[in-house]
Amino acid sequence: MKKKIHIDLSTTQTIMLSFLLAILAGSFLLSLPASSADGRAVPYIDALFTATTSICVTGLVTVPTFSTWSLFGQIVILFLIQIGGLGVVTIMSGLMISLHRRIGIRDRMLIQDAFNLNTLSGMVKFINKVFLGTFIVEAVGALLYMVVFVPEFGAKGIWISVFNSISAFCNAGMDIISESSLYAYVHNPLINIVTILLIVMGGIGYIVWWDVMKALKNLRRQKLKCFSNLTLHSKIALSTTGILILAGTAAVFLFEYHNPLTMDSFTLPEKLQASLFQSVTTRTAGFATIPQENLTNASSLFSLLLMFIGGSPVGTAGGVKTVTFTILIVSAFATMKSKADAELFHRTVSKQAVNKAVAVVSMAFIILCASTLLLSAVTDADALDIAYETVSAAATVGLTRNLTSGLNMWGKIIIIITMYLGRVGPISLMIALNTKKETKNIIKNPTEEISVG
Predict the structure, then answer these.
(1) How far apart are the first and last CA of the chain?
(2) What angle do CA 103, 108, 111 make, to 5 degrees?
(3) What is the DSSP secondary structure assignment for residue 443, as one 8-state letter?
(4) Confidence of residue 289 (pLDDT cuts 50, 70, 90)
(5) Can you point out the beta strands (E) in 235-308?
(6) Calpha distance 276→266 (Å, rounded)
(7) Type and span of the H or E element at 264
(8) How many other CB atoms are found less than 10 A from the CB of residue 362?
(9) Residue 230 contacts by C-beta under 8 Å, 6 or more apart in sequence?
(10) Could you write out the three-class secondary structure of 29-43?
(11) 212 — phi, psi (to 5°)?
C-alpha cells in the first residue's frame, strides 16, 4: 500500500502559494478570447503580466487596460485587484464565515500572518470589520466618482466609478478611462481629492482605522487628546504618513514649479493640487495626473524614495512601510547618540522590531538591486527610467516613466517576479525559503569585536 505524500507548508509558504495560484488562475482567464476587447486572445505573457500586476496591486501594464480588455476581462482584473488588496487569505476566510464554517487554528494563524497581528483572538470579528470597512469606503468613493464620470460617460460612468474606486482604495493604480491615467483630471478637485483619500485610507492600514475609532469613542469619556489615546503603531503610521505627504508635496512643488513639461503653466492652486497628488500617489498608488517621464531628475529621485518607503503595515499599500522606515531612522540616531534603546513617543522600541526593520529594508534593497541590474542587462533604456520601473514594481506602486509598454519578453518576466516578491514581502520570502526548524542553542560562539562604519 502506497503512503500518501503529505506536504506540510508553513503559514507564510501557504500565503505565498495562494498568491501564486491566484495569479496563474487570473492569467488563464485573461488569456481567453472572451477577455479581449477584439475577441482575439492576448499573448499569454501580457495576460500573466496583467494578472500579476492586478493581484499584486501594482498597476504597471504592458497593454492599455481600457482598450485591450472586454467587460469580462475588466471584471476579472477588478476581481483580482480586490483579492490582492484584501489578500487571498482574507477572501477565503470571508467565504468560510459567510458559509458558517468554523475558522480553525491553522486558518487563524494564516490570518495572523497575513495581517501581521499579535494575537489569535477575535479573528472572525476582525475579518468582518475588514470586509465591512472596505466595502463602505469603496462604495462612498464610487458614488463620489459618479458625480464626474456619469455626466461625462453616461451609464458607463457607473462602471468606471466602481472600477476606479476599488483600484484606488487597493492602491492598484489601474483605470479604464484612457491610456494616460488621470492626466485629463489634473485640474479636477473632486477627482483629485477622492482619489487621494481612497489611496490614504487603503494605505494607512486597518489597525490604524480601528485604533482611531476606538480613540474617538474614548475621547467622549475621558478628557484626553485623541492622538495620546492611540497605540504606538498608529502614532508612528499617522505621523510618518503626514510628514512624508507634506515633504513630498513641498519637494514636487519646488522642483516642478517652472518645469514647462509639467506644471509651469498651472495656477498656484493647481500646482499645489498636482504636487499633493504626486506625493500621495507615489505611496504605492500608481495613478498619475502628470507624465512621470516629464518630471525633473530631482522630483524623480525624491519619488523613488517615497515609493521605496510606501504605505503602512496591514493595509493595501506596498513598500518597506512607514513604520519600518521610522523605526530604522530612529534606531540609527539612537546609535549615533550612544543610546541603548530607540525611543518614540516616550516608548521604547523593542529590539525585535528594530531587527525586523533592518531585515526588511536590507532584503528589499537586495531584491531591488538584483532587479535593476537584471533589467539593465536586457533593456536598452535610461538608468533613471530603469530604476523608476524596478522600484515601482518592488514597492507595488505602478508608476512608470513610459518604459513598461516597451519591455521585451525578459524585461516583462523580471518585472513580474519583482512585483510578486514586492507583494509577498522580503521577510515572507526568506521565512518561506527557510526549511530548517528553529532550535535553541545552549552553547553560543564566542563574541569578537569588529569595526563598523
Answers:
(1) 62
(2) 120
(3) S
(4) very high
(5) none
(6) 14
(7) none
(8) 14
(9) 211, 212, 215, 238
(10) HHCCHHHECCCCCCC
(11) -65, -45
